[in-house]
Write the structure tokens for this entry.
Amino acid sequence: MRKVLALGLAAVLLAGCSEEADPALPAGPPKPGTLRVLAGSELADLQPVLEEAAKATGVEVQFTFTGTLEGAESLATGGVDGKYDAVWFSSNRYLAGIPDAAKRLGDQVKIMSSPVVLGLSTSTARRLGWVDRQVGWGEIAAQAGQKAFSYGMADPSASNSGFSALVGVASALAGAGNAIDAGQIAAVTPELTGFFRAQALSAGSSGWLSEAYQRRATGEDPGQRIDGLINYESVLLSMNNSGKLPEPLTIVYPGDGVITADYPLSLLADANDDARGSHQRLTEHLRTPDVQRRIMETTQRRPVVPGVDPGPQFARKDLVELPFPATQDAVDALLSAYFNKIRRPSRTLYVVDTSGSMAGERIDALRSALVGLTGADGSLTGRFRQFRNREEVTILPFSTTPHPPRTFTVPEQDPEVVLGGIREFAQGLQANGGTAIYDSLDRAYDVLEPMVAKDPDRFHSIVLMTDGENANGAGFPAFRGSFGSVPEVVRQVPVFTVLFGEGSSDELSQVATMTGGKVFDARTAQLSEVFQEIRGYQ
């Protein structure tokens, strides 16, 4: 989905240093020299470079940021037609496997590059013997399977860094020398399962992932500290340069290969002459030696123009590039196996407002959002954001008081019966009564504690959605004051809060910050889209 910059995935006008309410839906035709670009959210760090480019070329870049699958779907379904002149994602490899998306791409010009690699705290890398020694994905996977270290990785359906990591480790473990295909995935599933056993943090974007790691490392976040991250090399180098980490990250470059993002600025095939001229002027400028060095200095991404040498921060200059799956079927099979068989399963508790103010369209939106996660949304995005096999889902409605919770466990085989039960429960939600937000959140901790104690080896999260301010029971000050006494096993569970209707943005933002979660805004977006976006963090 696309949202305001302050919330992460965003729409913002760069190169002019101004913001618009929603550039995803331009009010009219762009002025000459404007290039409307649908892009990956990590490109926000190019703002200084694009401001300088605007002065040099007269080309103003209007960015709308979106996720990996959302962008691919917009291209494939024609959602970009007439709204954008170009797309700029970290890679076009996934798009190339979708004919309806690929046919909409015109000239594609690579601007910079960054491999997806493993960054470990230096003490962890030293303990494992991986400082100044080349290791392969096989050894990394073996150590991960023994939980010799823990790491965070972005959701591969939401972020290219997570997707590239999944493809990279699967291709390396397959060891065929060719792009992995659907038929090889079953053979590498045991090793992949071991590798992902060490994943302790998921995120919907590479940016939030790095921020969460930093907060946990410094103790600002109550969540479990982790030993490292799989992320873009540029992100890891920037984290080291920030001076905010207790100890620097050692970057591990697997000797058997990586997947590298090459950031092609791609003109759409139906772009008009003005956009074509703007694209040409901008890409030529961005590929000049001085600007390549400026990009390298500003973003820590590698240059792609011959004759511009990578800086000394890049410890490994020559990297082996792993092959990328050639078909959408192979990619979809890998993603499906990851979510339904390979990664640790999730346990999610939804605390949802069913007070009287939710009557009408709002309760309908809540029902639809929950039903959409049961597989009712057959879109490219919806397929990989639904409730997954082995997942445990608890729904705790509340109004004047917390209502009885209902727990569903989605089986690995034949999940439809349970998914149907979730649909039936969601469709039966009724709106009436008051709003007891914090009594209900306290009740969620009570419900979750024995579950976590009995089966801790899951990704745990709470989603708190309300359309109003607290009107019944304990208030936010009482919750904040007692949070330290919440049992540690559940105090580490992030709470993802959803602003809806007249919900208190200040209080819900504080809840998200206190618990290591994130706040999402459904006041200007579809609630179903927000619930799907949250899936990247669960």
Remarks:
- The chain is about 40% helix and 20% strand.
- The first strand starts at residue 11 and ends at 13.
- Residues 1-25 have pLDDT under 50 and may be disordered.
- The longest helix spans residues 437-454.
